Amino acid sequence: MSNPTEVLQELLASEIRGDILVLFHRNPGLIDTLQGVARRIGKTEYSIEKDVQSLVKIGILKRKKIGTSEVIFLDRDRDHEVLESVANHLSTIRGSNEN
Amino acid sequence: MTVPIPKPGTPGFDQLVNRASRHNGRVKTGIPELDEMLRGGFMEGDAVLLAGSAGSGKTTLALQYLINGIKQGEPGVYVTFEELPDQIYRDAKNFGWDLRKMEEENKFRIICTSPNLLLESEGENLLDESLKDVRPRRIVIDSLSHLAMYVDKHDLRKEAYRLTMHLKTKGLSSLLIWESPQITGAAFTDYEGVISGSPRRVASEKFMDLFRRA
User: Fold this and answer.
1) Closest partner residue to B111 among A31, A33, A64, by Cβ?
2) Which of B6-10, B28-32, B58-62, B181-185 has the highest mean pLDDT?
3) N or C: which end of chain A has fewer CB within 10 A?
4) In CATH, which of 3.40.50.720, 3.40.50.300, 3.40.630.30, 1.20.910.10 is domain B11-213?
5) Euclidean distance between the first and final Cα of chain A, in Å?
6) Taking the complete model, does pTM exceed 0.90, yes or no?
7) Residue A48 C-alpha from the chain's centroid
8) Contact between B114 and A36 using a beta-carbon 8 Å cutoff
9) Complex ipTM value
10) What is the CATH number of domain A4-91?
């Protein structure tokens, strides 16, 4: 997924997705299981699964097998790319609206 | 049981100094009083146990050790099992340390995870990404007491040994934090008796008191 409009739509698709993004942006070094991430934002594992999957698809989050567990963490480089692309897209929209 | 820090002129102190003089590599903590006390700093590649009660300044000292390392061109990693990085960034700002900026410059990383994940990964896979990004020379594990909650008392020494040896093979000088339940007297618990043989226990309660006075 590289179209900034689609990425933006995906990022803003749910409140939970926003909570997960805020958690990882405030704590970029967080490495935790799905259950652990859910607990940290006051949700259940089941309720955040779809949103985590979406962020993994965009590339902002990564999943990795550690022993018998699977952990989730922020892909700092990809996150930077995505945010930059979205910011550029928004400033282009703002510019065209002003004209 | 606590280990008293030998004073200059005593046999224990002289032994320490003689042993130290055989090695060239010293890792300066950057805290003048402590470096002077340690005759130049920690031994390079050693695992040092920093023990103290809650609020005694273990985290601040550990962060200072990493920050001073960065100033000397040695990147650092802080592994926390308790506090979220957000809190650490905020607290560090009070000391004038911009940890986020240091992370952007790939000089520093905070890893926040659960002790059981570190144990499962055998310390390797979980830390790998950050170790590759930053190529640290110093690492802080905050704390071994949290790790102890996830292992049987009799396995703690083995796990602590495995972790410290893993860090040593990566060429890291490590500072392992241990939260003691009290400030004076018999501060070390049964657990500490178990792990005391693995890392070098230079920094004890007495040291923390001394550091606070400095």
Assistant:
1) A31
2) B58-62
3) C
4) 3.40.50.300
5) 29
6) no
7) 12
8) yes
9) 0.83
10) 1.10.10.10
